[in-house]
Every structure is written in C-alpha cells, then in structure tokens.
Specification:
The structure is a single chain. The protein is an alpha/beta fold and about 210 residues long. About 40% of the residues lie in helices and about 15% in strands. It contains eight helices and six strands. α2 packs parallel to α3 and α4 crosses α5. The chain is globular. About 40% of the residues are buried. The model has no long low-confidence stretch (mean pLDDT about 95).
C-alpha cells in the first residue's frame, strides 16, 4: 500500500485579490507561504517521508512544494514538474475580479464557469489571454488524468509515498476521479489552499481510505 498526498498550493496574490488566475504565473502571498508551512508541519507531525514529488510549471505550486519539502527535511527529493498539472485556463476571465465578474454576468453563470464539469469560460483574446485559450474542468481532466495515471498512480500502487502539489482544478479533476464524483457533485467541490488530502491506495489502485488535514 502506498500513500498519495495532494496539496493545493497556498494562497496566491490573485487569490488574495479575488481574481481569476489560471495560467498566469503569480506568486504566493505571505499567507500562502504560511499555509504551505503549516501543511509541511502537519505532514511532519504525521511522520510522512516521500519517495517522489510532482507539481506544475507555475511558481505558486512549486514554491508551496518547496516549503513543504524543506520542513520535512527532503529538499533534495526528486521533483517532476509538468504542465499537465497546471491550473485550468480561465480564458477571458483571467485577471478579472470574481465579484465584479459575477455582477456583470450573474452569480449563477459565473458559478457554472468556475465549478461545472463541461462548460468553459469565454475564449476571447485579452491582455491575460492573448492566444484565446479556455478550459473547462473536463478539458483540464483530459490532460491531468492521463498524466496522473501514467506517471503518479503507478508509483503509489507500487507502495511508494508520493506528494503532489497542483492547483484547485487539476486537483479537482484528480479528486473527482478518485472519489468517483458525479458532474453534479463536483459542482460543489471546493478544495482549500494548503490543506493536505491523504489517500491510502492498494496495489490495484483502489482507494482504501481518505483523510484531510
């Protein structure tokens, strides 16, 4: 049996400013660094040691992971970084204030863009979306899950302890799959920043237990 630990990155500057972030590479706040520190301290208190770690190519996730590993005394641990674990691309919403966007389009519509499984935000080209990209959770899952099942889960199934520090929606895609949530259930799934989620997984890939810090 291996352990899979998932930790959403700590609070970022645009989390603090209540802005849609997506692929924009913003840093952690002081609170975000403190959240990462507390996650590391919780894992240390539980006696965790990891065999490998994974994160995205964005600095808020990488810094969260680095803080955790430093507290665990595992700063030299092998870390694989891949765009497959990036946050979902929020399209034309990137950089916009969430409250102001809700006033403009309505809270119900913005909730659908933020939380639904298969409805992406608008793809208009903007300052923070010059290429006109957008992703739904379904599209995010289409890149995150194949990577998870080819690179991460086999290690856990082999009995290794693996730490993954991704983003809210790449993490939602993984949790949705592991917890076998429906499209309706994932609409209400919100994952806190800096809170470890621990799965015990057997050699067949079956989830035996799940705990949250």
């Amino acid at each position: 049996m291996g352990k899979l630990v998932l930790v959403r990155h700590g609070q970022s500057q645009w989390n603090l400013e209540n802005r849609f972030t997506g692929w924009v590479d913003v840093p952690l706040t002081d609170q975000g660094r403190e959240e990462a520190k507390k996650a590391g301290e919780w894992l240390k208190a539980k006696g965790f040691k990891f065999d490998q770690a994974f994160t995205s190519v964005l600095q808020r996730a990488q810094k969260t992971l680095a803080i955790i590993l430093d507290i665990l005394g595992q700063s030299t641990l092998s870390v694989e970084k891949d765009q497959a674990l990036n946050e979902r691309h929020y399209g034309a919403l990137q950089g916009l204030n969430k409250a102001e966007t809700a006033k403009k389009f309505g809270e119900a519509q913005v909730k659908i863009w933020r939380r639904s499984y298969d409805v992406p935000p608008p793809a208009d080209k903007t300052e923070f979306n010059p290429e006109g990209i957008t992703e739904s959770l379904q599209i995010t899952a289409a890149r995150a899950l194949p990577y998870f099942y080819s690179h991460i889960l086999p290690l856990v199934k082999s009995g290794k302890n693996i730490l993954v520090a991704p983003h809210g929606n790449s993490l939602r895609a993984i949790v949705m799959d592991l917890d076998k949530l429906t499209k309706a259930q994932v609409l209400e799934l919100n994952l806190d920043t800096g809170k470890p989620i621990v799965y015990d997984i057997d050699s067949q890939g079956r989830v035996l237990s799940k705990t949250t810090a």
